[in-house]
């Protein structure tokens, strides 16, 4: 633990983190002020340790004056843990409960919010391809972190992860082999262009940006957990506004709209897998 | 001291250890009990319902935004880190594993230590890796009270041994003394 913020100074930590987030917002426009405090504290303390800076005010000083250093810090605060077909049961339920609805549309607009490095977007594209729907889809995959979007566009991933992904894919009800969708290159795999043909990767910040399209389906999994309640409500409002009537919202397996302001604006399609439908009225 | 929460961390042997401790805490146990148990990706629903059969406290999985309240034992959901926010509500994180663990004991203990400070009791029980030692040290540094199960009587001594070495806890006690100690501390 950081020795500066001991028993005596511990109250200062939260005060200084508040100032840091305010400074970052004013200088760079990225707004982390309503992120979970416990999450931010953890990331800030870890950044202090790595960079050998003693206090959060010292960190703020450096962040304000060094844009490259800020890029690294931005990465600290963004959520970059993802995998293909994460939570396979979710994808099974999606096939069973959401795909039949999507089939009724002639053209399907999808927003994958907080797509990070793209693994879950390609999982979705594979599933849509296998259901014969991908050609009818337009997928907007967004994140606030340009660095992860570059990785997502490249569609190149570590080969060491593939075994796990294959297993997830099978458990998720995949009808082919995952290797049908990628080419191996040395220690990496590259997913085929046919999957990304219908995907647009774009910069969008859920905290500071507004509605950009009307869509039939939104996936935003394991993003809301990092937000404080008011911000969760704000983002759920943004999703509600973006969805067509009876549009579908998919959240992470431990994320809930219960107790939120939008609880009665959605009905559950699969409560356990957190798949919801926008109410007509 | 007016304690406000107990955090418990355990891995291998933890099912049995918790089956010993939790039923001894009566329904008037005055503070929430928050547990990280390493159990891999398996769900813990059946263990939770088993405990509910033998505990006076209500045992459940902690949910996002849920306030930590007395009368409850909360378990971290499998595959998520569990944290406590400044408003004493839970938050979850899908961040990378720490000490090969998600949920990680360190993540829960550190976040709870910053929020509860000296009003926190941290407990490390049997386990086969080093998770929890750093977290318990933070609990102690921020003024909380620390207990570690005597490694000689733990099914897996590695976790308590790391915690003893790194955190130098206030109490090192045998498993059957843990619940009486928690009751004694919180009733003062």
From TrEMBL, chain A:
An example Gene Ontology biological process: methylation
InterPro entries attached to this UniProt entry: Bact_Chemotaxis_MeTrfase (IPR050903), CheR_C (IPR022642), CheR_MeTrfase (IPR000780), CheR_N (IPR022641), SAM-dependent_MTases_sf (IPR029063)
Gene Ontology terms, MF aspect: S-adenosylmethionine-dependent methyltransferase activity
Name of the protein: Chemotaxis protein methyltransferase CheR
Organism: Mangrovibacterium marinum
Annotated keywords: Methyltransferase, Transferase
All copies of domain CheR-type methyltransferase, residue ranges: 24-257
The keyword Metal-binding appears for this protein: no
UniProt xrefs under SMART domains: MeTrc (SM00138)
KW Transferase (keyword) present: yes
From TrEMBL, chain B:
Sorted UniProt keywords: Chemotaxis, Hydrolase
Group of enzyme by EC: hydrolase
EC numbers for this chain: 3.1.1.61
Entries under SUPFAM superfamilies matching the protein: Methylesterase CheB, C-terminal domain (SSF52738)
Protein name: protein-glutamate methylesterase
One GO cellular component term noted in the UniProt record for this chain: cytoplasm
A Gene Ontology biological process term: chemotaxis
Reaction(s) catalysed by this chain's protein: [protein]-L-glutamate 5-O-methyl ester + H2O = L-glutamyl-[protein] + methanol + H(+)
Organism field: Mangrovibacterium marinum
Domain CheB-type methylesterase: 1-188
Catalytic residue positions: 11, 38, 131
GO MF term list: phosphorelay response regulator activity; protein-glutamate methylesterase activity
Gene3D superfamilies listed in its UniProt record: Methylesterase CheB, C-terminal domain
Protein origin, superkingdom: Bacteria
